[in-house]
Amino acid sequence: MENGERALLPPGMSDLLPPDAAHEAATVESLIAAFAAQGYERVKPPLLEFEETLLGGAGASMAGQTFRLMDPISHRMLALRADMTLQIARIATSRLGHAPRPLRLCYSGQVLQVSGSQLRPQRQVGQAGCELIGAAGAAADAEIVALAAQALTGVGVRGLSVDLNLPTLVPAVCQALAVPEAQMGKLRAALDRKDAAGVAAQGGAAAELLGALLAAAGPARKTLATLSALKLPEAAAREVARLAEVVGLIGAAAPDLKLTIDPVENRGFEYHSGVSFVMFALNVRGELGRGGRYMAGANGSLEGHGGEPATGFTLFMDTVLQAMAGPRPAKKLYLPHGTAPADGQRLRADGWTTVAALAADADAKAAARKLGCSHLLVAGKPALID
Prior knowledge:
Helices cover 36% and strands 23% of the residues. By secondary structure, the chain is of the alpha+beta class. It folds into 3 domains: 12-158 and 284-328, Bira Bifunctional Protein, Domain 2 (BirA Bifunctional Protein, domain 2, 2-Layer Sandwich); 168-264, no CATH class; 332-384. The strands form 3 sheets. Strands 1, 5, 6, 7, 8, 9, 10, 11, 12 and 13 form a 10-stranded mixed sheet that branches. It has a 4-stranded mixed sheet with strand order 15-14-16-17, with helices on both faces. A hairpin with a 2-residue loop joins strand 16 (375-378) and strand 17 (381-384). Helix 2 (20-36) runs antiparallel to helix 5 (138-154), helix 5 runs parallel beside helix 11 (234-253) and helix 10 packs antiparallel against helix 11. It is elongated and about 85 Å long. The protein starts with a helix and ends with a strand. The mean pLDDT is 91.
């Protein structure tokens, strides 16, 4: 095999080189620090778990994106995680099942998926996020949204917006109006396509009301006013009232955050049981993250009923990095051969990144330039290389 062929990587895989690898690592640690500052404790689940554990319950939705292999020790099938939320739910409801509630956990790590998408062709993606388990109130929903926004703003993301969703609203309307299952499937498909004509074509009171919900999407305050004016079934009206409460709490915690509402969006929120959201940034394709309310089942699965109330979010590091300014150039200082170790320690303590010569140089300035240094130590002091 030729050297060039040895360097080839599978589709959707890539090397992250300097200075981008360091930039990603520093960004993850900054996010984790922001989570920790609000009481979220870090956990670290394994890359591999038994297939039946990782893909049980709502985890079955990730089966098509999950790599599997046989464990030569236990002779059982293992699954390589394609998402981390299921793992955090398992930890919370098993290993930390007796910890005081509400339980605040945060995490970061890599996930691997069988295939990428048009917007995210990478199959290995870094994730960072938080889960708030054991709190059912609107204050928990608002805390999670505001925390995600504040953490992203803190690492330099600008033009941030949050699209709030109610994946339980359409089922509540259809159930209250006794919509047949077959018609509900057609309505759901049309809503997912944002096809107003397709919704109207189904006819009846449900189609009329769902069409009004579809048309209501937009800025949060305007959408809430429109929803409040609709004659919604009791269960659906409660969902809207909860959303309005969450919007008010987010506005108090993050008054500059742009909020929109899409009341009929459901894609990617199949196991969610309440207020959910997607995060975007100006001039960046794809989502920075998503999250929302769910039920953490007693077996660690994510269930639409039973278990503990929970909410959380996951940030996708590839998109987050696109939304940030590039890595800042390091203050890189070249130390000529013979520089005292104590001098190097002092300079690093002052914030310099030092590169030490391993042998005497005929031209120290040229050697410094070659290694990407911006400064050279001259007479014990950093001097800018012109």
